[in-house]
Amino acid sequence: MNRRQKAKTGENDVALVPDGAAINGVTVLNSLWSATWARPAFPFLAGDLLCDILIIGAGLTGVNLAYLLKKAGANVVVIDGGEVGEGITSGTTGKITVQHGLFYDRLTKEAGSEQARQYLAANDAGKERYLSIIEEESIACDLEKAPAYLYSFDDAAAIAAEARACESLGLPVSFLKEMPLPLPVAAAVKMEEQYAFHPLRYLAAIAKGLPIYTGTRAIAIEGRTVKTNRGQIKADQIVLACHYPFINTPGYYFMRMYQSRSYLLAFANGPQIGGMYIDAREDGLSFRNWRNLLVMAGEDHHSGDNQKGGRYAALRREMAALYPQAQEVYHWSNQDCVPLDRRPYIGPFSPKLPGVFIATGYNKWGITNSMAAALILSDLLAGRPNPWADVFSPQRHPEIWPLLRHGFTSAGGFSRSYLYMPPYEARLLPPGHGGVVSYRGKKFGVYRDEEGNFFPVSARCPHLGCQLEWNPDEKSWDCPCHGSRFDHLGRLLNHPAQTDLRHEP
């Protein structure tokens, strides 16, 4: 069966088995979105370059910003170490919504109603700008209006508080005791006038005609010059829109946020659910339709904290319990940066790096926040004040207790790297598994393939030296300190690390 074959007929049906390798009969690609779009091709950088504004990162943030800047007549260039849209953007659920979980009540209490209004206004403006761009450019990206539901199985009081906070900010919501989904909820908040789309089809449309160079990895920033693997780029202003900043100092963003992984399934033979749904719990379930498929996400955890695995299995059990006739089509995962106070960092990178800006830490709500970042940064880059910039200021500092807890987690990863000697020998690893083990008398991260061959790599993350952990669900080496990830052979998957793991003999 190839990409064009269907499971059933109908104009909204999609291919159920795209080209690719199969595991347990299920075809595995990066995501549903990456399997159902035509990636635009862009050239490598071919030598040194000059520009006014350089954007590092060709996901939604970087391409949205470049689109706005080019419309305003700016001389802008975008680079990416990989391909357009192949990073975090490709793994999202694709919800264009200002419903961001149990958030507005918390933000109002912690930062005040004025900053909560700024956050809401920025994201609402982001939502509206998507709609206007899609209409103006006639983009076929499966835009669909759908209400957004936030639900809880056991905490009606938290849902009621969130509803009150939304209403106090001028955001109309409905407080409900039940939903269309077959879930026994205690309460839910319903928000109308929200949207969903195909994020990569949108991205492909607005990327056309932009000066984007792929396969061009930023290595260092020296003054107003960015060194890449293919040449140097001098720019008056530089924007880091690369999910996680690749420089540690100044800024120290690695101390101010962590990374979280989530897992997603897309399946056929599920119902049209008439909206977008998300559990108030951090690791709860999220649902939305795309054409004839139902997308379910959940099982969130701190990156590097999945030694036992079973995340996909847990989602499949939920799928089978809710929809016994469901047929899995795709499964994939994604990674999000979460600031300790849950607000993104959008603005000047650091007073010690004038002319450098950042957009990161979207707290799992990267669609509207990426457009909000593009709107804010397009003002700041032009020297204009922005009415929402204060709530996202990178110069704010987290409260001491979250900072200490995050520091303890990182300290544990450092200490294991230097002090812990595993008692297990590599020969005890089952085929197809990995672990930090003793190999030839030394500590390594070792993967044992199905034929019994061993593949040892350094067990230390090249970012800051934390001990890596094996993720059995994805056969990857994950850093519990700052979220860098590597495949089972040590090849870099996720930043902030910049290099592959060192291979050992």
Report a brief summary of the structure:
It is built from 9 helices and 28 strands.
What are the main properties of this structure?
single chain, 505 residues, alpha+beta, eight-stranded mixed beta sheet, 28 strands, globular, disordered N terminus
Task: Give a topology summary.
Elements: E1 22-23, E2 26-27, H1 32-35, E3 49-56, H2 60-71, E4 76-79, E5 95-96, H3 104-111, H4 113-136, E6 144-145, E7 148-152, H5 156-168, E8 174-176, E9 187-191, E10 195-196, H6 199-207, E11 212-213, E12 218-222, E13 225-228, E14 231-240, E15 257-268, E16 276-279, E17 286-290, E18 293-302, H7 311-322, E19 327-339, E20 345-348, E21 356-360, H8 366-381, H9 400-419, E22 433-439, E23 442-448, E24 454-457, E25 469-471, E26 476-478, E27 485-487, E28 492-494
Parallel strand pairs: 3-4, 3-14, 4-11, 7-16, 14-21
Antiparallel strand pairs: 1-2, 5-10, 6-10, 7-9, 8-9, 12-13, 13-14, 15-18, 15-19, 16-17, 17-18, 20-21, 22-23, 23-24, 25-26, 26-27, 27-28
Could you tell me how far the N terminus lies from the C terminus, measured between alpha carbons in angstroms?
41 Å
CA radius of gyration is: 22 Å
Structural class call reads: alpha+beta
Number of strands: 28
% residues in beta strands: 25-35%
Biggest sheet statistics:
8 strands, mixed
Tally of DSSP helical segments: 9
Low-confidence stretches: 1-28
Task: Report the helical percentage.
Answer: 10-25%
Q: How would you describe the shape?
A: globular
* Average pLDDT over all residues: 89
Describe this structure in words.
- The protein is α+β, with helices and mostly antiparallel strands.
- Helices cover about 25% and strands about 30% of the residues.
- It contains nine helices and 28 strands.
- The chain has helices spanning about 30-35, 60-70, 105-110, 115-135, 155-170, 200-205, 310-320, 365-380, 400-420, and strands at about 20-25, 25, 50-55, 75-80, 95, 145, 150, 175, 185-190, 195, 210-215, 220, 225-230, 230-240, 255-270, 275-280, 285-290, 295-300, 325-340, 345-350, 355-360, 435-440, 440-450, 455, 470, 475-480, 485, 490-495.
- The strands form six sheets. Strands 3, 4, 11, 12, 13, 14, 20 and 21 form an eight-stranded mixed beta sheet that branches.
- β23 and β24 (about 455) form a beta hairpin.
- Mean pLDDT is about 90; it is low at about 1-30.
